[in-house]
Specification:
Elements lengths: L9 H12 L5 H13 L1 H18 L8 H25 L1
């Protein structure tokens, strides 16, 4: 009987990506996630993006965004979260 590979969905990968980078996963889950990253461009991009954020935050260099950029970012984020919340309420 052939063994079927254990699969993981993208949402679980997103929840575990920090643990993956911190090497805080058991070997089996780590291997499953590594295989998922090889086959999923979206999750691979999230992994790369998370690594980049950690590099930026971890290098000790702080920088401020221009006030207008910060305002635009938060406005867009608020709209996105409101739309997501509205979508989730309708789907319930």
């Amino acid at each position: 009987m052939a063994r079927r590979p254990i699969e993981i969905d993208c949402e679980e990968v997103w929840r575990q990506v920090s643990n993956y980078l911190d090497d805080e996963l058991d070997n089996q889950l780590r291997a499953v996630m590594a295989a998922h990253f090889k086959n999923c461009a979206h999750c691979s991009a999230i992994l790369d993006g998370t690594k980049n954020v950690l590099k930026l935050v971890g290098d000790g260099k702080a920088f401020e965004l221009p006030a207008d950029s910060s305002r635009r970012f938060y406005t867009k984020l608020d709209r996105h979260l409101a739309a997501t919340k509205s979508k989730n309420v309708r789907g319930s």
